[in-house]
Design a protein that fits this description.
CATH superfamily of the largest domain: Thiamin diphosphate (ThDP)-binding fold, Pyr/PP domains
Structural class: alpha/beta
Helix content: 25-40%
Largest sheet: 6 strands, parallel
Bound molecules: thiamine diphosphate, magnesium ion
Radius of gyration: 25 Å
CATH architecture of the largest domain: 3-Layer(aba) Sandwich
Strand order of the largest sheet: 3-2-4-5-7-6
Number of domains: 3
CATH class of the largest domain: Alpha Beta
């Protein structure tokens, strides 16, 4: 039996059929007809205060749950407001579906009110985008969008919908409902068949290189989380007893408290993770992409290492560093095959002829002992140390707390000082480095995981970019918690000016008390506290953790002169890593 319907109702029904539980969005002229059926839909809609917020909320939701986030906005300025989240999701391979309204199809190209070429503008920041031209194509467009966003290398997909084909008052919106089958979706995308199973011959070669290595390291990136491969990785690491580094995107993919975990490599990675990669004779890159923030100066990166590179996106293999063994495939499936191949070669038993790795292990533990992350406590009367605030936040919050962050020094300290022991607890803007990400992303994460405590650690600069979404959180009763590390500066930029521009500070000072963060947060419906001395830190965090009926903002007054160490200065090799001033005389 055919059901007669219209494009607007079909769009909402298609989202229901995809299992969507929540849409983050804000209506307007072109998308109006799609907002009407939302009233009768079981899907929750969260009304944001700025479309950038909707996009980052959808990303936070996706990062915390593994399910695609959905945002819906109108045409023109709303579509351009969501370009940053699209780009952010594209860089971090986050599954997201964005629906934008468009002017009626016959008006396209006339400079109609709130018209912009959304598909053109977003082409390079989406995995796929499409302007739908006929109402009857809507269900297939939505199915394709979810399929493409979530399969292979995940990413954002945008579906642009002209108003006439969703407006029941317009004959162009009339259609009969149908729901395409999986096969119909697959055959509608003939060029799209992500390879998931690694090539057996390459897996064999990888196993042989791993068995023969003296100084191997697993270089684990965000792809492990996308592939839901954290358990498989743990089995692989424990079987081979090879140490693991987790990049900024992979924090939580392997537990920080595991003896094989070396923590984060890269520009602000710890000494041991950076140096172990640098001196390795084999790097097994699993869902990582040799980002410049990890490699430092490329021609000095890991000079003696052979490379095994596993990635579901063939375009990553050889993009930056030529692999000795390239493997295209889903990280979980490849790791499972690799584990079998390694067992066949005697890994994990005494009957194998792997070289002795005692010396490698002792080099690593020597670096860990000499060069731990370190900072000096503040003297009484001085401003707080951000690292201390983070240690307190971590130890006083539930073990499986989800933490989001903005971009800057506070982000690096959060990645360094938080102990990530669970996958999907780190919600962060890695590739794009988007200031303003944390508040909306934390809200999205909390919507997806209402059972978890969700903290956003934000900078004062970042907070000023998207704080208005706390109005959304208060209205919708989404009890996120925000810790602002208020150093009165665009701190990360200040750090570069201090170190590389002879302390010539240009346009980085923000003021500690303008705005008044406590008043501002209260005006947005939050509970807010200012914290100035070390004794207040713990009790304030405890109080915030007890509140679960509204958002909370804690403003920590932190020391602006504190810098993030270690640091591999831009353009330097990882051998030139600058450690904390108190460690600079130690033998390397
Ligand atoms: C949207 C955007 N604009 C500019 C930058 C460049 N930038 C990177 S970190 C930073 C400073 C961030 O300041 P704040 O939020 O106070 O964090 P802090 O470094 O002080 O912890 C800036 C301006 C960026 N990453 N994103
Ligand atoms: Mg700051």
């Amino acid at each position: 039996m055919t059901t007669h319907t219209n494009g607007g109702s079909a769009l909402i029904k298609a989202l229901e059929c995809e299992g969507v539980e929540v849409i983050f969005g804000l209506p307007g002229g072109a998308i109006l007809p799609v907002y009407d059926p939302i009233i009768d839909s079981p899907i929750r809609h969260i009304l944001v205060r700025h479309e950038q917020g909707a996009g980052h909320m959808a990303e936070g939701y996706a990062l915390a749950t593994g399910r695609p986030g959905v945002a819906m906005v109108t045409s023109g300025p709303a579509a351009t407001n969501i370009v940053t989240p699209l780009c952010n999701a594209y860089m971090d391979s986050t599954p997201m579906v964005v629906i934008t309204g468009q002017v009626p199809y016959p008006s396209i190209g006339t400079d109609a009110f709130q018209e912009c070429d959304t598909v053109g503008i977003t082409r390079s920041v989406t995995k796929h985008n499409e302007l739908v031209t006929r109402a009857e194509d809507i269900p297939m467009a939505i199915r394709q969008a979810f399929h493409i966003a979530t399969s292979g290398r995940p990413g954002p997909v945008l579906v642009d919908i002209p108003k006439d084909i969703v407006d029941p008052k317009n004959p162009a919106s009339a259609m009969d409902w149908y729901w395409p089958t999986d096969d119909e979706v697959a055959s509608s995308l003939p060029g799209y068949r992500p390879t998931t199973k690694g090539h057996p011959k390459k897996i064999k070669e990888a196993a042989e290189l791993i068995m023969a290595a003296r100084r191997p390291v697993f270089y684990v990136g965000g792809g492990i989380l996308k592939a839901r491969a954290a358990e498989a990785l743990r089995e692989l690491a424990e079987l081979t007893e090879i140490p693991v580094v987790t990049t900024l995107m992979a924090r939580g993919a392997f537990p920080d408290d595991h003896p094989l975990c070396l923590g984060m490599p890269g520009m602000h990675g710890n000494y041991t993770a950076v140096t172990a990669m640098q001196q390795a004779d084999l790097l097994v890159a699993l869902g990582s992409r040799f980002d410049d923030r990890v490699t430092g100066k490329l021609d000095g990166f890991a000079p003696t290492a052979k490379i095994i590179h596993v990635d579901i996106d063939p375009a990553e293999l050889g993009k930056v560093r030529r692999p000795d063994v390239p493997i295209v495939g889903d990280c979980r499936l490849v790791i499972e095959e690799l584990v079998k191949a390694l067992r066949d070669r005697g890994a994990g038993s005494d009957s194998n002829d792997s070289p002795d790795r005692t010396e490698w292990r002792s080099s690593i533990s020597g670096w860990q002992e000499r060069f731990p992350l370190t900072y000096e406590q503040s003297e009484p009367g001085e401003l707080l140390k951000p690292q201390y605030v983070l240690e307190q936040l971590r130890s006083r919050s539930p073990e499986d707390t989800i933490v989001a962050s903005g971009v800057g020094q506070h982000q690096m300290w959060t990645s360094q000082y938080w102990k990530f022991n669970h996958p999907y607890t780190w919600v962060n803007s890695g590739g794009l480095g988007t200031m303003g990400f944390s508040v909306p992303a934390a809200i999205g994460a909390k919507v997806g995981r209402p059972d978890r405590t969700v903290w956003a650690v934000d900078g004062d600069g970042c907070f000023q970019m998207t704080a208005q979404e706390l109005v959304t959180a208060a209205t919708e009763r989404i009890p996120v918690k925000v810790a602002i590390l208020n150093n009165a500066y665009l701190g990360m930029v200040r750090q570069w000016q201090e170190m590389f521009y002879e302390e010539r500070y240009s346009e980085v000072y923000l003021s500690p008390d303008l705005p008044d963060y406590v008043k501002w947060a209260e005006a947005m419906g939050c509970v807010a506290l200012r914290v100035e001395s070390p004794e207040e830190v713990g009790p304030a965090i405890d109080k915030a953790n007890e509140i679960d009926d509204r958002p909370v903002v804690l403003e920590f007054r932190t020391d602006a002169s504190e810098k993030v160490f270690p640091m591999v200065p831009s353009g330097m090799t990882n051998d030139q890593i600058v450690v904390d001033p108190t460690q600079q005389e130690l033998p390397r």
